[in-house]
Each structure stands twice: as C-alpha cells, then as structure tokens.
C-alpha cells in the first residue's frame, strides 16, 4: 500500500516530492509515542466515530453530524478570497459560477433542484470568501431555506474580514443556521466573531490546527467559551503543490499516506482537545482528520452517484464501490435465481446471492466501478443524464477503478478476498500511520 501512496503522491508533487521531509525513523517512533499518550489520556473523555477518524462525535454541530451521515452538499459560491493564509490548499483568485462536485449552477433555482434530487439534508456555502459576493451568497441561502425550511440545515464559511452587523442581520433573515469563522485568516482576531454571537443561531470556529499557535489557541479557547461560541472544529494541515512553498519553510514533518499531511498538526489538535477537557472549558472540540475527510466524504460522494448507475446484478460494497462478479458459464452448476447478465465472451455476471450455484473450485472475476457527477458528457464511459430544471442537467458517469481480480468462488463465499480487493470493500481503520 505504501508503494501505491508513493506513486500517487509523486504524481501530485512531481519534482517537489523529493524535497518533502517525511516522518521516519526515530522521529516517527517519537511522534507515534506522543500520539498514543494523547489518545490514552483522551480515552473516556471523548467519543471517537467513523472508525476512529473523528472526535468528539458526542458534541458536534448539526452540520458536522450531517456530513458524517453523507447528506451534506458544499457549494463553492465563488473562487476568490481577500486573505492570504499560508495554509490555503488551493489558489483563490478565479471568477467562477457556484459549483459543487464539478457541477456549476447559474441560478439558485438550479441548486435547490439539485438538493432535492439527491436528498440532501445539509448545505453549506464556501468559497473563496462568500462575502466577496454578498448578493449571490444571500440569494442562494434564501432560496434553499425558502424551499426546504428546516428540512435542510445551512451554514456558511467565512474568514470574517468582511462581516458587519448589517451583513449578519441579512444572513439571519435569509435563514442561515450556522456561521463558521476561520480566525486564522485574521491573525486570531475575535472582534468580528463576537458580533455574530446572538444574531446567527450557531457560531463555530473552524481552523486548521497550526502547531505554532498551540499556546495561543489554549488562551483563545477560554475566550471563545466566554464569548458563547458553540463549537471549535480543528482540521489537519495538508501539503499541496499550491501551499508547498509556504509549508516547506516550516519545521514540519509529513505523513506519507493517503495524502501528504502534517504530523505536528494532528498532535496539536489532539493536545487542544485534551486541554479543553482537562480544564473544563465549555467549548466542544471536534478534530476532523484528513482520513475522515478522504474516506467518508469520498464515500458519500461515490455512493450518491453509484446508486444511479448500479445494475441489478451488482452490489455496493461497504466502502461505496460497485462490485461486479463474473464467472465462466460452464462453472455454473445450479440455477441462478437473482438477476444476471450474459457477456459476449460466454461468461456471465451474477449477483453475489448466487455464488453458491458456482462450482466449488471455480474461479470468479471481481471488478470494481465508481461513479461521479460531471458537468457535461465525456462519451468515454457509461453515463446517465438527470434533468433538474429546464436549463440544468446533471451528468453521472460510471468508470472502472480496478483491474479484473481473479479469486476462488468458495473463498469469496467465505469472506476471503485478495488483498487488492480490500480498499474497495471496507474502510480503513483509525488515523494515518506514522511508522
């Protein structure tokens, strides 16, 4: 698996890859020890969810809970930002239409139709900075809340620099349920944040856990609780080609795994969570780790699309992929009772419920597929067009994610799968490995 991660990360970073100081050797062992000590101290104080990738799930905001259920849509309302955070993972200087999952919308009506079609119960407005286009932002919030009322919980992300009392009042009147401030963008200034408390029903601080700000954040946590902030969400810093020049100057060590993340950022988040508990600070802290985002948000997006593209003889794995089982026709000894499909090479794709009808010693071929929403038909893969409004369609494209994997039918029936099937079948457990 490490070889696969190295291949993916090398492809992302190119020549920069060799300059990344990955966590290894005695440093990795020391960091793993620190993490284990923090996790042991947190045991019994916080509740971990999503197979050990997210805590404290006992006291999350409604938006975070809906994210965990896979029923949240994040709309990037624009592509511009007026701040210059060193940790920002992508450029924020483009004019663009409101977009989610590579699907853009030219009107609020198109977006509300999208939310209805796919059964979302939560929606957020992000950017860029949403308040750089206040009229657009307000029109989308109002349209969603007018259409769905309390059936959709809605929140907005902001750096806070453009927040005013008037803007907050308009956001409230539009129906916004929660506002989330990245106070790291304004050097941890809390003045704009304070003005939101008492106007917007729920006020949250959502920031990356920056190692250099550990001591400062301990002080800030007391102040946030005093102000009446409802939640503190901490993210794990991630290295990208865009923020590489900024992060590589800092004395960080990087985890070589699903993506390239900052080890010290995770330790900082865990330490702040522990500090809040040990000091009885009335401020729920939620650590949103990179593996949580990568695994569970990816799962939700896949599952939403593959439900539109799966065939009746295929099944959805626990990790949200389409599984197809194919067998040579002569190896079928019994009668197939579930749906199936004959292929041109005399093989048959069967439902897993009919695996007992296959010869005990026969091999089967397992193939995995995924699906995604795209803005227009590519004609490279099977697709389906979903009509939203007279002016808007969404295209869902199905595509292969694995080679054909050969295994024994009896092994499959007994739950024994080749290693190359595992990442398509089940979620990985826990936080990213340091060692």
From TrEMBL:
Gene3D superfamilies per the record?
A: Aldolase class I (3.20.20.70)
Q: Name the SUPFAM superfamilies on file.
A: Radical SAM enzymes
Q: Which Pfam families match?
A: Radical_SAM (PF04055)
Q: Does the keyword Iron-sulfur apply?
A: yes
Q: Which UniProt keywords apply?
A: Iron, Iron-sulfur, Metal-binding, S-adenosyl-L-methionine
**Cofactor entry:** [4Fe-4S] cluster
State a single Gene Ontology molecular function. catalytic activity
Q: Which residues form the Radical SAM core domain?
A: 66-282
Q: Does the keyword Metal-binding apply?
A: yes
UniProt-recorded name of the protein: Radical SAM domain protein
What organism is listed for this UniProt entry? Denitrovibrio acetiphilus (strain DSM 12809 / NBRC 114555 / N2460)
């Amino acid at each position: 698996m490490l070889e696969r991660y190295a291949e993916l990360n090398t492809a992302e970073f190119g020549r920069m890859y060799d300059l990344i100081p990955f966590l290894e050797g005695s440093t990795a062992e020391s960091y793993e020890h620190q993490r284990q000590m923090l996790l042991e101290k947190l045991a019994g104080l916080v509740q971990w969810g999503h197979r050990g990738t997210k805590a404290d799930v006992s006291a999350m905001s409604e938006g975070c809970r809906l994210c965990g259920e896979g029923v949240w849509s994040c709309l990037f309302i624009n592509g511009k930002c007026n701040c210059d955070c060193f940790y920002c993972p992508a450029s924020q200087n483009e004019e663009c239409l409101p977009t989610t999952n590579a699907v853009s919308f030219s009107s609020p009506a198109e977006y509300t139709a999208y939310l209805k079609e796919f059964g979302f119960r939560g929606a957020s407005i992000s950017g860029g900075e949403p308040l750089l286009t206040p009229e657009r932002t307000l029109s989308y919030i109002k349209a969603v809340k007018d259409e769905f009322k309390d059936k959709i919980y809605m929140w907005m992300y902001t750096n806070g620099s453009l927040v005013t009392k008037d803007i907050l009042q308009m956001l409230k009147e539009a129906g916004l349920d929660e506002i989330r401030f990245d106070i790291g963008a304004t050097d941890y200034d809390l003045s704009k944040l304070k003005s939101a408390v008492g106007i917007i029903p729920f006020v949250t601080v959502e920031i990356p856990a920056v190692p250099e700000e550990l001591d400062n954040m301990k002080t800030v946590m007391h102040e946030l609780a005093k102000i009446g902030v409802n939640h503190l969400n901490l993210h794990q810093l991630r290295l990208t080609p865009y923020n590489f020049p900024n992060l590589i100057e800092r004395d960080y060590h990087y985890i070589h795994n699903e993506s390239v993340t900052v080890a010290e950022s995770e330790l900082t988040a865990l330490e702040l969570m522990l500090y809040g508990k040990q000091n009885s600070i009335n401020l729920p802290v939620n650590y949103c780790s990179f593996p949580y985002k990568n695994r569970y948000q990816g799962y939700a997006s896949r599952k939403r699309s593959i439900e539109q593209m799966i065939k009746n003889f295929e099944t959805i794995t626990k990790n949200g992929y389409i599984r197809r089982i194919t067998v040579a026709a002569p190896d079928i000894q019994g009668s197939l009772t579930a749906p199936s499909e004959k292929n041109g090479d005399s093989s048959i794709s069967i439902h897993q419920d009919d695996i007992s009808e296959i010869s005990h010693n026969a091999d089967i071929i397992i193939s995995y597929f995924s699906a995604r929403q795209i803005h227009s038909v590519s004609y490279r893969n099977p697709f389906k067009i979903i009509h939203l409004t007279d002016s808007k369609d969404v295209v869902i494209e199905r595509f292969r994610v694995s080679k054909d994997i050969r295994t024994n039918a009896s092994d499959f029936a007994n739950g024994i799968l080749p290693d190359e099937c595992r990442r398509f079948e089940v979620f990985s457990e826990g936080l990213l490995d340091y060692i």
